[in-house]
Amino acid sequence: MGESESTLTLQIIVIGMGVLFALSFGVIVFFIIYQKRLFAQQQKHQEVEAAYQRELLQIAIQSEEKERSRIGKELHDDVGALLTTTKLYLSQISPEASPEKLEATTEKMYSLFERMIQGVRSISQDLRPAILERLGLVEAVKSMVNTINDLNVVKATFNDFSRKTIAKTHELNMYRILQELVNNTLKHANASEISILFTNELSDFVIVYQDNGVGFDEAILQQKKGIGLKNIESRLSVLSGSFRYEKVSKGIKLTIKIPLQS
Amino acid sequence: MSKELFGYLRILSSFAVLLPLCIALWKHRRFVAIQRKLVYLLIAILMVEVITNALWYQKKNNFFVYHFYSIAECILIVNLYASALKKLFPKHFFTGISVLFTVFAIVNMLYFQGLSAFNSNVTTTLGFLVIFLCLCYFYALLKEEKYSPLEKKPMFWVNAGFLIYFSSNLILFFINNSMFSKASEVSFLVWGLHAIVNIILILFFTIAVWVNPNQR
Hints:
The complex is a heterodimer of chains A (262) and B (216).
Chain A: H1 3-92, H2 99-127, H3 130-135, H4 137-150, E1 155-160, H5 168-189, E2 193-201, E3 204-211, H6 218-223, H7 227-238, E4 242-246, E5 252-259
Parallel strand pairs in A: 1-2
Antiparallel strand pairs in A: 2-3, 3-5, 4-5
Chain B: H1 3-15, H2 18-27, H3 33-57, H4 63-84, H5 91-112, H6 120-142, H7 154-179, H8 185-210
Helix pairs in contact in B: 1-8, 2-3, 2-8, 3-4, 4-5, 4-6, 6-7, 7-8
């Protein structure tokens, strides 16, 4: 091999090695930067998710506290007051009292006990609806619809086209979600009709809730969610479910989907 | 490059492998599978360096060592990637590569480049193969569902070292046999460059042995 040819080959090798070294080094640096960016995005996403979960947890705690305080108030104002009154009547019973007075006091006490039993039953019903426990979600919703219709303010309808229903353990959460929706309609919507529909879609249990009230602006709702709506989200996250609003001419239409295997 | 400087570089490059091996001795208790497999490769490198250097000092041809080492090196490297790329390729893919490469290396040894010649065909093929596996590893990292810090992944450092080493030396391995069969100023320079890239590879191995992937 001539000297000039050897020098040329050497130059080719050295330049080639240098270029390939720089290229591979560049690939590694690019990859590190790119992966770091992806990693940062993932962490940001996790932080947002964690913040959302914390918010849901806070709502769940708030809602539980609110419920406890409501039950406490009911026990104090209703059952507590009745017990105090009964105690007063009881103090009037003495051997010297006339038979007429004794009979009247006993009757009043009997009626007070009846009211107390009703009060305790009502609180117990609120805590865990007996019908839901005994007959399941469909019958519990039918009963809820009947109660709404008894108010003669709103006309509620319920249709069940589902073939498969959600797990028994999830029924209470679903019932509470419907209760929350009905409460929202009764309190804020100024509606005259409520419609609840159960159906199945692929592997999901679907609930379509609709009213013909004043409705709301979804953009505003996304920015400013009330405790009720956050409570629904919190319960749905437990069920791995999702919900979406559909635009309707009047009122709201909400579709809730819950995976049947959840 | 002077012969003296090349000598220093060669010695440094040959025995730089002792650094990751010493760290491996110190940290072997908390090693993960990839680090253990890397240590097997480091031991193989050390053995080859000891034998080739001993032959070099006796002024004997040491090329035959590389014929056998290339086969062992391929199997050990493929073994490293077999666990790192298990989601990308099935297990028999790696077994197939190892078998094919071994057959190719033996055929090359018997019919094309004998034991007294440098096995450039085999080393070049190994270079291409490892570069392919390196790129596959980067692809697998991007496909991960959950990203984790790269600096704590021993395989990332091993992969980066391989990519730099094999891509830089690809041309050198390919034309080495035909161009620089005799020791000269030019061959000292080229092999000096190889020694530098080799030291960089060993440094990457050292980091791979040093990092603790289980540490949070």
